[in-house]
Amino acid sequence: MNIRALSAELLLQVIDKKNLLSQTMRVAKRKIPLKEHPLLQEICYGVLRHLSRLESISSKLINVPLKGKKRIFHYLILVGIYQLRFMRIPLYASVSETVESAKTFGKVDLSGLINAVLRNYLRNQKKLNEISPSSNVEKHNHPSWILKMLQTNYPERWLSVINANNSRAPMWLRVNKKHHTRNEYSRLLRNNNIAHTLHTQAPDAIKLTSPCNVTLIPGFKEGWVSIQDAAAQLSINYLKPQDGELILDCCAAPGGKTTHILEHTKNTKVVAIDSNPTRLKRLHENLNRLKLKANVICNDARYPNKWWKGNKFDRILLDLPCSSTGIIRRHPDIKWLRQVSDISAFAKLQREIMDVMWKQLKPGGTMVYATCSIVPQENELQVEAFLDRVEDVILTNYESNGYGRQILPGEEDMDGFYYAVLKKQAS
């Protein structure tokens, strides 16, 4: 299938029909050869990163908005403008391939419109690119509610968060210590001329200077390393799992933290629960590749009586559903799919799971509350409220904001993440 046409279809599914980019991308990639996957991803992720600005430019080139069945051609135009402005594809190829893709949808007459729009952009590119943004939404390529939230809560750092969100995410490796120490694996990368740096706090984290296909990473198929952002890897620092313990990873899919716990311990019984069967398939795939075993359960964490009859847990990792506002650079669709009204719904769900899971923790046990959010209502305010309503709890990490640790996107090139370590008092 024509790659530009497929890109436009995917963008229509995400922006107009509110489907997740990760899901639509997975389906779209099945329609094209493996060698074309990077181009599809570059175009779609790029358009979503710069969506507001691209929309503004296109509005100055089209007299009548394309709606209804013609909406797909609006996204073809955004695909074309993105290529011309941000990619190194030869100009004639960007235009001709995008124009040709219009024929895929059986509208040959509209290929002329797309050709005229893109050539008009080329002729006036410098002037169009230099037009001052008409709003902060256009200037920063973020919806107004996220901009307001960042400016209110991070008045000195909000712009650095915006810049991080609009950048390409780095590729972090997690070294499997059952095979190599991090220093040993670092030497292996150097021997293969793969440039990289080590994280200062996450003990297993290595950042590749240039992302690459996993087939080029030494021992990936054999389970020597996994792909996981350094911020997510820090969960092991806070959970501190010990050999032989019974540990629950709640909302565990796709399994990055589950497998990390197993890599760090011996004879540990890990229960991994998630309500999403599709994501749990990826958890099983990760366990199989790493040759690790866990008790995987597909169920709703809020109702443990339906899925757990065993002993109370020594440690519980709550990596809870959230707004995902800390991982926008990896999932730029989040900017446009999330609404401010979603925050209260997520906060309610988090509170419900938190309260129920606390009862599943043995006295003296540790529960780590974690999200990939940077919204205070889902993080420090959530934990502060929990401390107010629960008597037998002690917060052990008063860090960046007084209640746990808030990592903002871009800190040591990490994703945004939040951690609070909650200790249950012994009875």
Automatic annotation (TrEMBL):
**Which locations, inside or outside the cell, does it occupy?**
Cytoplasm
Alphabetized UniProt keyword annotations:
Cytoplasm, Methyltransferase, RNA-binding, rRNA processing, S-adenosyl-L-methionine, Transferase
Listed PROSITE patterns = SAM_MT_RSMB_NOP
EC code:
2.1.1.176
Determine the domain of life of the protein's source: Bacteria
A GO cellular component entry from the record: cytosol
Question: Can you tell me which residues form the catalytic site?
Answer: C372
Q: Name one GO molecular function term.
A: rRNA (cytosine-C5-)-methyltransferase activity
Q: Which segments constitute the SAM-dependent MTase RsmB/NOP-type domain?
A: 161-425
UniProt-annotated binding residues for S-adenosyl-L-methionine: C251, A252, A253, P254, G255, G256, K257, D274, D300, D319
Pfam families reported for this sequence: Methyltr_RsmB-F, NusB, RsmF-B_ferredox
Query: What InterPro entries is this protein classified in?
Result: MeTrfase_RsmB-F_NOP2_cat, MeTrfase_RsmB-F_NOP2_dom, NusB-like_sf, NusB_RsmB_TIM44, RCMT, rRNA_ssu_MeTfrase_B, RsmB-like_ferredoxin, SAM-dependent_MTases_sf
One biological process term in Gene Ontology: regulation of DNA-templated transcription
Which family, according to the similarity comment? Answer: Belongs to the class I-like SAM-binding methyltransferase superfamily. RsmB/NOP family.
Concerning PANTHER family, the annotation shows:
NOL1_NOP2_SUN FAMILY PROTEIN _ ANTITERMINATION NUSB DOMAIN-CONTAINING PROTEIN, NOP2 YEAST -RELATED NOL1/NOP2/FMU SUN DOMAIN-CONTAINING
Protein purpose: Specifically methylates the cytosine at position 967 (m5C967) of 16S rRNA.
Q: What is this protein called?
A: 16S rRNA (cytosine(967)-C(5))-methyltransferase
Q: Which organism is it from?
A: Candidatus Photodesmus blepharonis
Its organism's taxonomic lineage begins at: Bacteria, Pseudomonadati, Pseudomonadota, Gammaproteobacteria, Vibrionales
Gene giving rise to this polypeptide: rsmB
